[in-house]
Design brief:
- The protein has about 240 residues and is mainly alpha-helical.
- The protein has one domain.
- The longest helix is centred in the middle third of the chain and has 37 residues.
- The relative contact order is 0.12.
Length: about 240
């Protein structure tokens, strides 16, 4: 009888497939969150009006912005959940280590980011269909969101990248909290200080990441930020393993 050690890739694949099946509640919650966001979006993201004695015109603007924001929050919270003990102990069903566990989690979050990004962008079409065929609104723009395929695909790409970035941030925050519960207090204080302090470092950091006119440079910045966050999370998880 011969014993063979499974390769890292094989273990990661097993864990990834297992998590897709076991964590279906994450995708169910995505549907619920996006459904709630669509309800909030029915009021529109902006409006203008004009009128005279004989006619009144009211114009409302609709987009997937609210759905995207809700989806980003979903990704952030889902990533934090993956770092909790209840989820980490699921990996004990496999011959595993921290590397394979983290890689399978990253693949799971990447899959969720792609699904969440695509459905968030498609929600704009669903919202328009609801407004036209249910509430009898009239659109002055084409009903189809995919009227300009290039812009639509770029919208999906950027939304998926933003969502994956928020997943990476949530994963990093979750690891910090697992290292020490004191970070539950420290992180909000740092966030508020960086956002409203004299230097407003957090606002400047967001400006560096999100106010890039070049698409290629923007993609590189987001990918580098994602890689740094996940790399830091892996380092923290190794330290957590040593402590435990």
């Amino acid at each position: 009888m011969s014993l063979s050690n499974p390769s890292l890739g094989h273990v990661v694949k097993q864990q990834f497939v297992y998590k897709l099946k076991a964590y279906q509640q994450a995708f169910i919650s995505l549907v619920i969150v996006q459904g709630i966001a669509i309800l909030f979006s029915i009021g529109g993201v902006g409006m203008m009006g004009s009128g005279s004695q004989s006619i009144n015109i009211s114009v409302k603007y609709y987009s997937a912005d609210i759905v995207v924001v809700f989806t980003l929050l979903w990704g952030f919270i889902t990533a934090i959940n993956l770092t909790t003990k209840a989820y980490r102990y699921d990996d004990f069903a496999f011959v595993t280590n921290r590397i394979s566990s983290n890689l399978s989690n990253i693949l799971f979050l990447l899959t969720g980011s792609v699904i969440g990004g695509v459905t968030a962008m498609l929600s704009a079409s669903l919202l328009k269909i609801i407004m036209v065929y249910v509430l009898n609104y009239q659109f002055v723009a084409p009903l189809s969101t995919m009227g300009v395929p290039v812009e639509f695909m770029l919208g999906i790409l950027t939304t998926c990248l933003y969502l994956f970035l928020f997943c990476a941030l949530g994963y990093f925050v979750g690891m910090l909290v697992q290292i020490h519960k004191l970070f539950i207090v420290i992180l909000p204080a740092v966030l508020l200080g960086g956002a409203f302090g004299k230097e407003k470092l957090f606002i400047k950091l967001l400006g560096i990441l999100f106010t890039e006119s070049s698409l290629s440079i923007f993609i590189v910045k987001i990918i580098v930020a994602i890689a740094l966050l996940f790399y830091s999370s892996v380092i923290l998880s190794n330290r957590m393993e040593v402590r435990s």
